[in-house]
Specification:
Length: 501
């Protein structure tokens, strides 16, 4: 089994600042952390940019600039050609950054005086993770000049211009080839587009005790098995199909059955003991001819559905893929509201004009619904949150989950999983080729299978998103949704083997 798991531990910029202060108060000075950070940057520069004719260190007025001063001094001692450019005047520096400047004993030039040349390697130590406003014009101009010449950029903590909390570009940002960060990654390293702007990321220890850092990490983590391993059902020798749950998937009409069939097949491959495709009468023959291990049951109307639910044989449901938008779908959701349920695609759009009706169905109970909107569906269901440019994807997902009383899987290259109680995970294992028709239907089926097996909604959603990404990696470039389904068992075997450890 080969499984690469990066450290899920993330610190928001505010949490990182609080951890710095506690570390300083514990007897480990900020200046010591700064020195270790600067040494790590210099080592990274020498290791990966040996071809540099000159290292140009761009220093901001805060602690990120202090890291840059230390790195410049270390590079000069190593025999490198180094030039320092500073935002503002040296006499305006304070605290540990001023100490680092005094130790550097090197004159600094202004940003405006720097003209990039081929052969320069930029060490970007201007702003780091704490940036929460647009970069000033002089930095925008500098970014433009560096980009035009094509100088490689090594970013300190985060590329200047990337918001450390949201991953968004604040006006303009350096495109780094590599980024060195410290103690833990920030959300801006994992969220888009920050993830792309960072290039390759190295995580350097700088002497901060892990116990202090982890004490302040309260907001968000990367989505990987360590976040939900305890909730996963590792199959034992005495298991049988009824113990593994019975998943219902609802099909659309005769010309719209493909999405639901993919959802049902994915649910079966992902571990549900039984899967039944609930089919309208005019689509029953189409579905029956196409399915083998998945059962097909004719559900003609709401009365049929209520009788099926009353039988007590269904553990969870997925509704939405290919179903069609309208009152019929909403009535099915109302009739199914007491069950664990994944609402995907049409089931989200159907409530776009009356979202409070949907949210009221899950109020006052443990979350049992998983909503899986992509960007457009999220905007339809939560238009005010989608339009609020003052908040990032994490905050939008968090508020949406609280409002909906449901787990939100806010899909994209940086899918965010949010629980009504405030838990947040960012997924990062999904390959770009998952962006293909039917991929979301497969994800809904995996999540439904997890719910059917009794996994709580947040953990069911998070595990489904991760497994979906792993199956995509195994399927490879050019995969289709059908390929993705075929690779679920191998990804699941890797996951279960890891969970047994």
């Amino acid at each position: 089994m080969k499984m690469s798991l990066t450290d899920p531990f993330l610190l928001t910029p505010a949490e990182a600042a609080a951890a710095d202060r506690e570390t300083d108060a514990s007897g480990i000075p900020i200046f010591h952390l700064m020195q270790q950070a600067g040494f790590a940057v210099a080592a990274e520069a020498l290791r990966h940019f040996a071809q540099a004719e000159r290292f140009v260190v761009l220093c901001g007025p805060g602690n990120n600039g202090g890291d840059g001063f230390v790195a410049a001094s270390a590079l000069r001692r190593a025999g490198a050609n180094v030039s320092i450019h500073l935002a503002g005047r040296p006499e305006e520096l304070t605290g540990a950054a001023r100490l680092a400047w005094l130790e550097a004993q090197t004159p600094a030039q202004s940003f405006s005086s720097y003209q990039p040349h081929p052969g320069d390697v930029i060490i970007d130590a201007i702003f780091g993770a704490g940036l929460s406003r647009d970069v000033p014009p002089e930095v925008t101009d500098l970014i433009t000049r560096v980009r035009e010449v094509g100088c490689p950029v090594l970013a300190v903590d985060l590329p200047s211009g990337i918001d450390g909390l949201t991953g968004q570009v604040r006006g303009a940002a350096f495109q780094a080839q590599r980024t060195v960060t410290f103690v833990a990654r920030k959300p801006g390293h994992v969220l888009m587009p920050g993830r792309i702007y960072c290039g390759e990321i190295s995580l350097a220890p700088i002497g901060m005790p892990t116990r202090i850092a982890r004490r302040h990490a309260r907001t968000v983590s990367v989505n990987d098995p360590r976040a939900w391993k305890a909730a996963i059902n590792v199959q034992q020798g005495d298991t049988h199909k009824y113990k593994r749950g019975h998943l219902a998937v609802f099909s659309g009409g005769p010309s719209h059955t493909g999405a639901a069939r993919m959802t049902a097949s994915a649910g079966l491959c992902a571990g549900a003991g039984l899967v039944t495709l609930a089919s309208p009468p005019d689509a029953t023959l189409v579905n029956a001819c196409a399915m083998t291990a998945v059962m097909v049951r004719e559900i003609a109307d709401l009365q049929d559905l209520k009788m099926w639910w009353a039988s007590g044989k269904i553990s969870a449901a997925v509704i939405g893929p290919g179903f069609g938008v309208g009152e019929g779908l909403r009535s099915y959701v109302h009739a199914s509201a007491a069950r664990p349920m994944v609402l995907d695609a049409d089931a989200i759009t159907a409530f776009a004009e009356r979202p409070d009706e949907l949210f009221a169905l899950a109020a006052g109970s443990e979350p049992r619904q998983i909503l899986t909107p992509h960007e457009g569906e999220f905007a339809r269901l939560f238009p005010d949150l989608a339009a609020d440019k003052t908040i990032g994807k994490l905050e939008r997902a968090k508020r949406a989950a609280e409002r909906a009383h449901a787990v939100i899987v806010y899909k994209g290259a940086d899918t965010v999983i949010a629980a009504p109680d405030g838990r947040l995970l960012i997924n990062e294992n999904a390959p770009a080729w998952l962006a293909t028709a039917g991929s979301g239907d497969v994800l809904a089926g995996i999540a439904g299978a997890n719910l059917a097996q009794g996994i709580p909604a947040f953990e069911a959603a998070a595990a489904a998103v991760w497994l979906h990404g792993e199956a995509g990696n195994k399927a490879g470039v050019g995969m289709t949704a059908e390929d993705l389904i075929r690779h679920i068992p191998a990804a699941l075997e890797d996951l279960l083997s890891w969970c047994r450890l």
